[in-house]
Amino acid sequence: MPDTARLRAEDLSAGYAGTPVLDSLTAAIPDGGLTAIVGPNACGKSTLLRTLARLQPAGRGQAVLDGKAIHRQSSRSVARRLAILPQTPAAPEGLTVRDLVARGRTPYQSALRQWSRQDAAAVAQALELTNMAGHARRPLEALSGGQRQRAWIAMALAQETGILLLDEPTTYLDLPHQIELLKLVQRLNRETGRTVAMVLHDINLAARFASHMIALKDGKVFCQGAPSEVVTEAVLHSVFQLPCRIIPDPLHGTPHVIPA
After folding, report:
1. Which CATH number applies to 7-81+161-259?
2. In Å, how far are 91, 96, 175, 239, 256 from 213, measured between CA atoms?
3. Domain extents for the chain?
């Protein structure tokens, strides 16, 4: 991948409590694209996303944002350009949708700059983009799983960043709500030009919605490219130890996995 991408990993190693997870990984998130990061359990997908967002420190190498090592940039500066939605976000009980989305404006608040018309407009636009304006006054715990995920995405959108990272955004959702959420993410990518990278477990959904895919194995990039280049019988056998056949999706023409 070109070293001109706004967000990339360079010779990145990271882990937890002395246990390595990422091993000298180099990858770039294509600007303006919708990237799906796939791979078996414990291969480093979430760790990569967290390290790219500076939530996880790098043991060696670096994550680079806009040409500069991300750990050398201030938290406020990073938060104005990159938003991340973790796997299991938590919010205080009783918090309404509007209050949650308003938290996305935190990077723009200071002792000298309190709530402004710009903040209110950003929250309103995020609610509209995610079709959550009609639920703005409802508490989060009163929402369905799909609505709750849309509310969290609205909060990330309210940050008004050019880069959006989503860690397993379809977790705990049934298939119709997974499709609904991924259609929303795809629409946001296409209509607003945001660069999106997300961790997904379902290879068929990743191939259908992503414009670029990164397949990880044992903490390294095994391959990356267009879905047609990544979702192949040879790659899935090597990465997942899954014998399969690949056929064109009859509705969308994207690669579709049939396990053997």
Report:
1. 3.40.50.300
2. 31, 35, 21, 13, 14
3. 7-81+161-259, 92-160
Q: Are 7 and 29 in contact (CB under 8 A)?
A: yes
pLDDT, tens digit, for every residue of 28-73?
A: 999 999 999 999 998 999 999 999 999 999 989 999 999 999 999 9
Integer angstrom CA distances of residue 172 from 37, 149, 154, 193, 229: 18, 10, 18, 28, 29
pLDDT digits (tens, 9 = 90+) for 150-174: 999 999 999 999 999 999 999 889 9
Contact 150, 140 (CB under 8 A): no
Predicted TM-score (pTM) of this structure: 0.92
Residue 185 CA to its chain's centroid (Å): 9
Helix axes 145-158, 117-129, angle to 10 degrees: 140
